[in-house]
Amino acid sequence: MLGTGGYVSGPVLVAAHRLRIPVAIHEQNVVPGLTNRFLARYASYIAVSFPGSERYFPAGKTHLIGNPRASEVVQADPQKGWALLSRRPGSKMVLIVGGSRGAEAINATFLEIMPRLVSFPDVHFVYVTGRVHYERIVQQAEERLALRPEVRRQLTVLPFLDEMPEVLAASTLVISRAGATVLSELTALGRASILIPSPHVTNNHQEKNAAWLADAGAAVMIRERDLSGERLFSEMKRLLEHPSRLADMAQAAKRLGRPDACQRLCRALADLARR
């Protein structure tokens, strides 16, 4: 039985252990949460997603595997991403996304700098607001762009994006939160990013995730308390006007990726089941 860190997995995996059912856990964040730390004593196999996370668990049964999401997203075709947005293959794109429900802080900040996107005439911006924010954002965007109609050609605003892997694969730069799934996608595909970790998560794990990627030279981290339109615009400008910097970050991200994570975890679980 495999647990992935949610609190509901605690009693289930303890019960499995008592019934002599082999137990494994998978930690998706850089720093493990309380549930996985507690379950480590019952687990026969512990998989972690990031180098350095091994130190939180017993050495003999802990293995660096990666996040299985990487194995899925690495197959994404960037050609489909460009086609979906009616863009020329190879064109520069920046993806702005705040998670499945959107992020108010990111939305407010991007709205602030929206009229200044004209500074990057060769870049198309794909802005995913989250469904709950979409209508309000579109209305506010219309008001802000009334004086800069030329920006409209550079901007696609969407409530949600089912084809996220394909658009990620086609993106030059990603502006996002720093959840475990996003990090696995960015590193599997090798994409430079500006990460704005949510401060409203357990154990502040998103900031630790973002710091890990930033320390590796693959991302820029902006804490939400430091986020402003000027700060975000200046970081975008610094990267978009220096392609070599973007390329270095993308290569650093790619080196951290583990695109075979799903296969490795499945093999480990199959071996555990045969014991």
Give your account of this protein's structure:
The structure is a single chain. This protein is α/β, with parallel strands linked by helices. The protein has two domains: 2-66 and 260-274, Glycogen Phosphorylase B (Rossmann fold), CATH 3.40.50; 72-256, Rossmann fold, CATH 3.40.50.2000. Helix content is 43%, strand content 15%. The chain contains twelve helices and ten strands. It has helices at 9-18, 34-39, 69-73, 78-84, 104-113, 134-145, 164-170, 180-189, 205-215, 229-240, 243-256, 261-274, and strands spanning 2-3, 24-27, 45-48, 62-64, 92-97, 123-128, 155-158, 173-176, 192-195, 219-221. It has a six-stranded parallel β-sheet with strand order 7-6-5-8-9-10, with helices on both faces. Helix 5 (104-113) packs across helix 10 and helix 8 (180-189) crosses helix 11. It is elongated.
